[in-house]
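Go through this chain for my students:
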Amino acid sequence: MDTKDTSKTTTLAETLRAGQPAATYTTGCSMEPLLYERKTYVILQPVTGDLKPGDLPIYQRPDGVYIIHRLIRQGEGWCYTRGDNCLHGEKVPRAWILGVVTQIQRNGKIIRVTDRGYRCYVRVWSLLWPLRKLWYLLRVRLHRLPGRKYLKAVRDKLRALGRSR
């Protein structure tokens, strides 16, 4: 009698390529405030038709990492995606895309991507992109400023100069 274990663990990619739905917890902060690390559970469906801007495709990079980012635009054979919490996006081959998020579960609440509230969120979040980009750039510049002790010393010197006049 053969005692080899014949059960096989399938990967997320294999499940979606077989045309089956899949589910997983999310990791990383690139999609905050929508998806939080290990606190958000997503339901994925294989891609059966065209994607549209605002969709959340999941793709696998050649290094094996799975990414869920928002679709911004697409062209012949490629898609441009960007995380909701990211300044820069990524142009990925359409062949990398395995599926698309259809439901999000967080704190016991289920959010369907077809829900009116979710569609409003996507629309507002997309319209706010120019302001969010400005905010990200400003944050980067502020982090490059010298430490607080230095700023306090400069402020104190300016005050002292103002008093001596």
Residues 129-165 form one domain. The two ends are 99 Å apart (CA to CA).
